[in-house]
Amino acid sequence: MKKLLLLSALLISATFSQAQDSLTIRRFYDEALVNGQAYDNLRYLCKQIGQRLSGSAGAEKAVAWSKKLMDSYGFDKVYLQEVMVPHWVRGAKEEAYIIDGNKKIPVPVAALGMSVGTPASGITANVIEVKSLKELETLGESVIKGKIVFFNGAFDQRFIETGAGYGAAGVQRFAGPSAAAKYGAIGAIVRSITPALDDYPHTGATAYADGVNKIPAAAISTVAANKLSAMLKLRKLPLIKFYLKQSCQTLPDVKSYNVIGEIKGSENPNRIITVGGHLDSWDLAEGAHDDGTGVMQSVEVLRILKATGYKPKNTIRAVFFMNEENGHKGGIKYAEEAAANKEEHIAAIETDEGGFTPRGFSFEGASPAFLKAVNAKWKTLLEPYEADRLVEGGGGTDIGPLKETRPAIRLIGFRPDSQRYFDIHHTPNDVFENVNKRELHLGAAAITSLVYLIDQYGLNL
Amino acid sequence: MKKLLLLSALLISATFSQAQDSLTIRRFYDEALVNGQAYDNLRYLCKQIGQRLSGSAGAEKAVAWSKKLMDSYGFDKVYLQEVMVPHWVRGAKEEAYIIDGNKKIPVPVAALGMSVGTPASGITANVIEVKSLKELETLGESVIKGKIVFFNGAFDQRFIETGAGYGAAGVQRFAGPSAAAKYGAIGAIVRSITPALDDYPHTGATAYADGVNKIPAAAISTVAANKLSAMLKLRKLPLIKFYLKQSCQTLPDVKSYNVIGEIKGSENPNRIITVGGHLDSWDLAEGAHDDGTGVMQSVEVLRILKATGYKPKNTIRAVFFMNEENGHKGGIKYAEEAAANKEEHIAAIETDEGGFTPRGFSFEGASPAFLKAVNAKWKTLLEPYEADRLVEGGGGTDIGPLKETRPAIRLIGFRPDSQRYFDIHHTPNDVFENVNKRELHLGAAAITSLVYLIDQYGLNL
User: Fold this and answer.
1) For chain B: N or C, fewer Cβ within 10 A?
2) Same domain? B62 vs B102
3) What are the CA-CA distances from residue A335 to residues A44, A263, A365, B161 (Å)?
4) Residue A237 is part of which domain span?
5) What is the ipTM of this complex?
6) Per residue in A363-419, pLDDT tens?
7) Per the CB < 8 Å rule, is B359 touching A386?
8) What's the distance, CA B345 to chain centroid?
9) Do A118 and A48 have their domain in common?
10) Which of A359, A419, A438 lies closest to B439 in CB terms?
């Protein structure tokens, strides 16, 4: 009987706390949807500051403004965390054309981030089309040497989440130019990594392996890639050549900052839940969805907690990481400092997949048992907000290094709807106008809700 | 032992059929994502035909082209279903301004569908602002008589699905002008029903109650509504007046058509599963999301079934309903004909909430037991596609009348993500460019999957 009473008491208390949680979460959503400030903050970041590639004047302005913004919210602590970052610059607008006998057909290209430039007169060479790194390997040096390699592997439309398609096709951009250089290629052009058929080159970083000759590499629009591929099929070598001129270069590293704000935990000030996105962006547009939305949601989480009067037990921290796009130096630095300061990190949530309608969260390396527990406890709380897809999956680039220095941490990725992200990703179309206010604010509310649940119950479910 | 064997056999067969279903659904998605034609068809409908309000030349063109499209797919039967529809025309562009002493401040308005026009010289009157029909009632004839009533109830941002917010605020537009006329108002302006703060008037139908004096009614943009409201607060009556001029009118009814295509059922040709959207649109734009996406998804469902070689047991029918926007005559006619022809309708699925990322389906009047069963059987099949939210909720305007003539039917609404819909709904922004190809095609695949499951297993779960 005593046991039964205890069980009843536990059940009643669990039901009561579910009801309390449900009310608290509803308050977060009301605050976000009625008084949300992420959208207006994003407008400022996009329209008054604009592009903010690491090392640029825009990045410097963004750091200063972000700190001011956090200060204005009256968080318990706001500070900058110094970090040295690469300073790559695009230089003059790229030029490229397909040469078909006497005809020159201009095509839209954009240098890949961290690529070297061409000589001032550009490069001209025959083109070898490949669909994968494997195909490149099969052809080998005898075919590749002296040529421009055209990586034309298409985005696989069959993936339901576009992030998976980006990962699969993306290897061509990350690793393709370096692999082509190994076989003596003099340049590389890479089909834009997007499900869309459009006229924009989608830029993004590439990386050269150590000891490899650094060759110039550029993204080409999907429409132009299709055209080039069709021409190569029709005309064969050596009639079709390609001309590329770009003047990008990497300057000496520059001092920059992560921007950090926090609300101190009332019970465990040294236990931390981090929410973050990246403040830097590519240089072609305003970095609205990538990742202005992420940083503005991160600071909004703290604002919502404060505005609704919630006093967290643990310290809640918003981090604007610097240099996600071409170096990840901000994320690495943050993890180093967390270790140096012996901070206990419970969880880090990254929002860097666009400011679209929330679908849920992915828990990196989650066991089936953990997923079962997290769904059993929290799914019904998030279901009314349609942000209840709690699955295994990656956390994110910026929080990744924390796993190495703070192994007890749980890394979590915010998962918005993925369909539109790679249409605009790394193009001139990544502008404020393509962000929907409600979608952005629903995301901030969803993240706030998860932060709250972790703060209340931890993650040892 | 025999029982146990039977149970095992049933279990094995259930598991096997789940696996088969899973493969079949994957084939539908591959076909939609790789070879989908809804997007290109929609481009034609929007760009080559454009607006297609009932009775307009655009509607007539759309009917002819839709039939040709269905014919080109080689369905078993393609036909037109005659229906008389209202013929309302907007006339010359509306004019409106706020009169503040000697100042005239122009504001964007659009006549509500089915509204009467003003006299050629327009109407000018003092303005009474109300936030609800209840407030109007409280004021009564002594205050309202001779005035223009300004319905300024705002869209409640707290709803998670915007459709709920639309319904709540929408009553002002549907019923407001008629209610104001009852108290002697000479005109009505209605705040656009949208969560967005923008400069577009969002049109839509209004209705006059029998015997009530028909007064001119127009939608006003949310930005202008805020301005007018602020001016009324500052200046009070009678300084602020409002001028409205519109020349819309309702002409005699016109003959039009529902466009219908079907694949005959191999086992039960007289048992029907209907999938439909509406072909007519408002006159201000291209009716892309409302409801070009719906009709193009509906025909795509049949195309996908054919392309993947699926032979349905029951007849699958795509219906392009005419006149959803201002009369519902197509839906009413379809239900009448279904009764007259003694057709057995198993289910009707309506897609008229935009061509956005699928979230799931709503089953009208579903009991908790039905919802439990449908989730137990089908949720895991739809989960990989994130279209697994199977809930109670409305079917749709066009299929609604079927419930009266075919009471055994199950009405189902396709539920895409709702966040962006009412930003562009009934405005000049409802154009092809605001539709995402993958989102549209994912929707077609989701509906095809549900049609398949209903065809295989029925809805007596």
Assistant:
1) N
2) no
3) 29, 19, 19, 39
4) 94-247
5) 0.94
6) 999 999 999 999 999 999 999 999 999 999 999 999 999 999 999 999 999 999 999
7) yes
8) 21
9) no
10) A419
